[in-house]
Design a protein that fits this description.
The chain is mainly alpha-helical. It has helices spanning 3-30, 39-72, 80-102, 107-122, 139-169, 178-206, 273-298, 302-306, 315-349, 357-378, 384-407, and strands spanning 211-220, 226-235, 241-242, 246-247, 253-254, 257-258, 262-263. Strands 2-1-4 form a 3-stranded antiparallel beta sheet, with no helix packed on it. Strands 3-7 form a two-stranded parallel ribbon.
Amino acid sequence: MNWLSFSQDSYLVAFFLFCIGFISFVYTVAGRKMKTKDPAAHERKWGKISFSITFIGFIAQLAYFITRWIGGGHIPVSNMYEFMSFLAMMIVGAYVVIFFIYRSYVMGVFALPLTVLIMAYASVFPSEVQPLIPQLDSIWLKIHVTLAAAGEAFFAIGFVAGLMYLIRTARWDDPSAKLAQRSLEVIMVLIMIIVGFIAVVFGYRAADYELAIEQKVETVDNQGQINSTIETIMYKMPPLIAPYQGELKEDQHLLGVKLPLMEAPKWMEGAQAGRKLNTVIWSIVSGLLLYGLVRLLIRKPIAKAIQPLLHGLDPEDLDEISYRANAIGFPVFTLGGLIFAMIWAQIAWSRFWAWDPKEVWALITWLFYSAYLHLRLSRGYIGAKSSWLSVIGFIIVMFTLLGVNLIISGLHSYAGV
């Protein structure tokens, strides 16, 4: 049996089931606004159908994980594609746990799009099974990465519930709430940037776009002599940023307009630094254009357009779900993201801490959620304050997972773009 082929098929099945489940959850929630004879019965019926579709999708994603493990010969969490796919699976798993506690159908309206977005983002990266580098061939890899992802998955559910609380309680007719309104739209813009990045990558991939840029690389040998070599860097998107001392052999045009080309600064002289910066710029530009298009179509803030879906929900329940999810995720992340990670680092590199960018941001994540729990339990931060901390905390998590790989080089760059 071709386990890897079966694995990819299971992944696609899970992806489409989550898309269908999201649409079904929207119909479930929208039933409260429809002129049905019994809105409660409509919600119960379609809520069960929606959750069943989601749960089957979770089983399909679990099948992907197990069969890829069998076919690849090692746990599939060793590169960006595998880790983000695993994180998506854990987010659905965390939602399933929270659902059995709180029976919240509307959570699926927000949890599933996040899952689909992460699965689509994972598909941007090469999906081929890669052999493990020696440092990754350890039981501590399994413990460290799986627990870290599980903790982050519960943080994601905390983020979803916190964002729902903020949208549900937003006062759009109150001039004194302008800061909260604008902050919510900033969150929408960030989401659109990720969506725009995925759309641009898949668009240029479908067009089979590829461009080589030659970069002059200078190295110093043991005798102190400077040697110059030419390295070829392949761009998958039209270059707006060339590598430091990089040279483009031909002009690039987009819709008949010549694209401006800037050189990356000297401090970004790594072989892939210019390409990564180019990716970040394309993500921001495409995300802003997408956000502007959506705003033009709906003619109101995106968060305001979403708010009617949440009418009838108890904000206190959303606040409680957000807190409980973060409270579950924190000890799990502490074990996986810090303690077991340091044990693995000591075994793999003979030091438990090296101030690598990923390590630093994992520590920042832990400190932030430590502060969140302290403020929640000791200072009475509930409601909007607690929800904003949940949202900001998950933004830090996503920067640790995505931003560090795209912008900063380090020991964890094997998981990057």
